[in-house]
Amino acid sequence: MAEKPAQNPGTTSTSTSTSASNGGKTIDECQDMIRRSLRTPMVKFLLEHLEKSGCAIGERFIKAVHCNKQIAGGYVRGEGIQVCSNHMNIQDEVNQVVIHELIHAYDDCRGANLDWANCAHHACSEIRAGHLSGDCHYKRELLRGFVKIRGHEQECVRRRVMKSVIANPYCSEAAAKDAMEAVWDICYNDTKPFDRAP
């Protein structure tokens, strides 16, 4: 998120839409879209597993905000999930941000000593969120202009992990790449709370 304090870098979802130029949605419109998102099966599943892990969330945990940076949203420990209304155009975009950030919230809940300032910890959660959320589904990649038949999903996850971890004030590009490579196998194959990658 653009307004994250330096001591708690949290996570960000990069915006893949061109909505910044046309203003996206108002905060109220986006908040309505978030409410609709809460009724989708994947979001309900993640909320249920957050609760089972002892991290039930309140009504205002996911909120629409106006963002100055070109990001779709973010998760910040102790604050919750923010969805950048001015970068959202359609319901699917909001659903994706909510799902991605709920995976970060789940990781934060189950990892008692997760440190968002640690590049490897941050990279691991980004790998999981990118892989499990559907951010890198073939159709989404096509819409972004990335056309590759084989290996598109892992390539997409790697690209998006790098973008997010580099945005962490504690991680240089080299540190982000080293961290991602070091944790890739274990984090990519960690599909909790799903039985397998959805």
TrEMBL record:
Low complexity bias spans: 11-21
GO terms, molecular function: metal ion binding; metalloendopeptidase activity
Record keywords: Hydrolase, Metal-binding, Metalloprotease, Protease
Known EC number: 3.4.24.-
Record region (Disordered): 1-26
Pfam families tied to this protein: Peptidase_M76
Biological processes, Gene Ontology terms: mitochondrial protein processing; mitochondrial proton-transporting ATP synthase complex assembly
Domain of life from the UniProt record: Eukaryota
GO cellular component, one term: mitochondrion
Broad enzyme group: hydrolase
The keyword Nucleotide-binding is assigned to this record: no
Family named by the database record: Belongs to the peptidase M76 family.
Protein name as catalogued: Mitochondrial inner membrane protease ATP23
